Amino acid sequence: MLAEERFDNILKLLAQKRSVTVQELCDALDASESTIRRDLVLLNQQGRLNRVHGGATLPDSAFLTNEESMSAKEHQAVTQKQSIGQLAASFIHGEDFVFVDAGSTTLQLVRALQGQALQATFVTNGIAHARLLAQKGCRVYTLGGQVRPSTEAVVGTAAMTSVGRYNFTKAFMGANGVSLDRGYTTPDVEEAALKSLAVSRSMETWFLVDDSKFSKIYSAVICPLTDAAIVTNHLPNEKYRQYALIQESGVFDSSTHQEKESQA
After folding, report:
1. What pairs with residue 168 in β-bridges?
2. Which of these, 20, 62, 18, lies nearest to 39 by C-alpha position?
């Protein structure tokens, strides 16, 4: 049996049972234990399963479609988001030309700006972000387009056209979900398109995501994990370091973490 055929059969068994032992796979595929263990290592590295002691389990990524309002998000994981925002703000220098995405975690970055970072030039599609940047005395440009009431983000054709005219030194992005195999995702197609374009126009991109965002998948893809780096309060699965540079602020509240991924 060819390796790819074994891979398909392993994943089919996992889809049926959600967890399998090495011995079960040996019996089902008529393969040696060493062969199955090598297969599990490769599939684990690809993010297609979680290798555990004595077998494998399905990845824990949950597919979601709902999105809470901006006001609701601002009251969730506040300490974690503040720590992420403070760390991300330290990456900004006075000569930077920065895109700041809409979202509750990127808003914490704006709140944390101080010193030379205030001399940078900012472009944002966040209504609250633009207002706060202006209050801090920053040079800030907003995008034209439609405002989504739930997220207070500017989206649409006009916003896409505006972003396409810029080249950013750094972009700080938000995402609703981060997954090993699906990358950065969000519920809204128009927001995903704008985020994706901003990433492509930036020399350096950071996604600001608290630890509850990992192992979640939403319907609209922004970009793969390899296209950006991550700032988080706590990384729940070390596998992500295989695909992206990750900086942690070190703040972790286990009560807020609902969807932790199993580690091999």
Report:
1. 202
2. 20
Per-residue DSSP letter, 161: H
Beta carbons within 8 Å of 107's beta carbon, 6+ residues apart: 74, 85, 126, 128, 129, 132
DSSP assignment of 57-83 equals E---PEEE-----HHHHTTSSHHHHHH
Which structure tokens are listed for 21? 């032992």
> Which architecture does CATH list for 3-58?
Orthogonal Bundle (1.10)
Task: Kindly list the distances between the CA atom of residue 82 and the CA atoms of 30, 67, 72, 74, 247, in Å, as whole numbers in the listed order.
Answer: 53, 21, 16, 10, 14
| Domain 70-256 part of CATH 3.40.50.1360 | yes
d(CA 115, CA 251): 24
Q: Output the pLDDT for position 27.
A: 92
pLDDT at position 254: 41
Per-domain residue ranges for the chain?
3-58, 70-256
pLDDT at 197: 98
Residue 185, sorted as left (phi over 0), alpha (psi -120 to 50) or beta, turns out to be: beta
Q: Coil, helix or strand for 116?
A: helix
pTM above 0.85, yes or no: no
- Classify strands 220-223 and 183-186 as parallel, antiparallel or unpaired: antiparallel
pLDDT less than 50: residues of the chain: 254-264
